[in-house]
Design a protein that fits this description.
Blueprint (H helix, E strand, L loop, with lengths): L7 E7 L3 E6 L4 E6 L2 E4 L4 E4 L3 H18 L6 E6 L2 E5 L2 E2 L2 E8 L2 H7 L6 E11 L8 E2 L1 H6 L5 H23 L3 E12 L5 E4 L7 E5 L9 H4 L5 H13 L5
Antiparallel strand pairs: 1-2, 2-3, 3-7, 4-5, 6-7, 8-12, 9-10, 9-12, 10-11, 12-13, 12-14
């Protein structure tokens, strides 16, 4: 960014992992990634030292990769170690979960072992609502309650599949298996769907290809230890340098 970059304004929103600020350009937002960590709908809280820097850098790296593959994202530029400039969107309140293997709540829900391959890949919807615990829903529920249109659901399904097909081999080249991940989408002024939020060890289960070691937020959720080290390892593999 040069000296003409937008100026950070008032705090617009603070979530579990990020703060969003207005800027002098109404079409852009300033995002700050935090070290705060939560799990189980914020029942468990803590801090992962350096998480903000890792998630910001990994998200930037993967968003730029997806842009090169033709996926429209909200990412604009990196502003600092944990800060980014993104396009302002109207967020669709539907979280998209893409599952390549059974893990976490999905494995518990259906009583299957973790790591079981899923064929076909499972793509699910959840309502984006911390207060309600992000409940799962089907297409009819999302449309009937006005959370998304049929066209938006179709578009998000296709984009999520494209993201999965692109990221899976890319991460595998860096020794990481993409087990499952969460995506969020928004619409721009012309109503086009755009990938939003982040892609990081916070929002994706990443297992070491060789050992199966978990290199993601499950280390925090399950008190496995080595949380900071796991995040830093993902940073090293994808960004290619030692995090600050």
């Amino acid at each position: 960014m040069n000296d003409s970059r937008p100026v950070r304004g008032e705090l617009r929103y603070e979530g579990k992992a990020k703060r969003l600020y207005a800027t002098s350009d109404p079409q852009l937002l300033w995002v700050e990634h935090k070290d705060d960590a939560t799990a189980f709908n914020a029942v468990k809280r803590g801090t992962i030292q350096g998480k903000g820097e890792v998630n910001a850098a990994v998200t930037a790296e993967l968003m730029l990769f997806l842009e090169r593959r033709g996926v429209a994202t909200h990412f604009v530029a990196t502003l600092g170690p944990r800060e980014q400039l993104v396009r302002s969107l109207s967020i669709v309140p539907v979280e998209v979960i893409v599952r390549n293997r059974a893990a976490g709540s999905f494995a518990q829900r259906y009583g299957v072992e973790e790591g079981r391959p899923l064929d076909p890949v499972v793509i699910e919807w959840c309502l984006k609502s911390d207060a309600l615990g992000d409940p799962p829903m089907n297409d009819a529920t999302a449309v009937a309650l006005g959370f998304a249109t049929e066209e938006q659901l179709e578009g998000m399904f296709e984009m999520a599949a494209d993201v999965n097909e692109a990221l899976g081999p890319h991460l595998a080249e860096h020794g990481l298996e993409l087990i499952d991940f969460k995506l969020e989408f928004g619409t721009d002024e012309e109503g086009r769907l755009v990938l939003a939020d982040e892609i990081s060890p916070d929002t994706a289960r990443l297992w070491d290809v060789a050992s199966g070691e978990r290199l993601d937020k499950d280390r925090f959720r399950r008190d496995l230890g080595g949380v900071e080290e796991a995040y830093r390892e993902v940073y090293r593999r994808l960004v290619g340098e030692e995090p600050a």
